[in-house]
Amino acid sequence: MLKTRVITALLLLALLLALLSYQSFTAIAFVAIVFFAAAAWESFRLFGSKYPAIGAALWTAGLAYIAFKGVVADAIALFAICVAIWAARLAPSLAFGLPPLGGIANRLLNGIYVIAILGCFAAILALYRHSALYLFSVFAIVWIADIGAYFSGKAFGKHKLAPSISPGKSWEGAFGGWLAVMIFFAATTWFPNLADTFASKLLVRWGWGGLFAGLSLMVVASIVGDLFESQLKRRAGIKDSSNLLPGHGGVLDRIDALIPALPLAVLIDFWL
Question: What angle do CA 131, 132, 135 make, to 5 degrees?
Fold first, then answer.
């Protein structure tokens, strides 16, 4: 299982690095459409939709329209809506619970979540238009937080973060992930070749206080995204969103933390 997980992770990383180095907007948009179409399909399944493939097909058309009709350049309102969705509806679900499957409230929540997925897709394209390195630097915030949380939780985890949603996550792990991000990106600001990164722009515009505040918001957003998808899976009674990625589960299982974090990054970037 671990071997399969590592191989899949390396293949996905190789694909991402190849796309970023190739520097083709069309190529990265096409691959992103494929992955996010799969994520939309998984989302409809988690919400108990009878026709997840039809829903995913409709959203795929929306993804393609956003990618190739130049909508991304004027999509700041979409990113603001996505951040508001997380703050006002999706994040509170972690405390107040989810509606039962099959009702109108569930279908409305499904639509809201898929809009959030759409916003994450658009955010990837918006950040990529800045530069490939800039996009990668935002991905890295979420990845480092996740890795730091995993190892910190394994070593020091005693106090459960959300025991009814994800028993394996701890406050110590969350703090370890946050600390790993702070240390790593504080260190990268000393390298001139990494000047065109999200963290470097935060530092130049808002100083060290702004850097730590911006990165902290990103880490919190990533944790919320992870927990919300875990909550959906627990309600549906499944371990993974699908089995599309051997050793990792589904696409949503890999991008759940990115869904709230990337639109937030674009909004922060808008003010830099």
Answer: 90
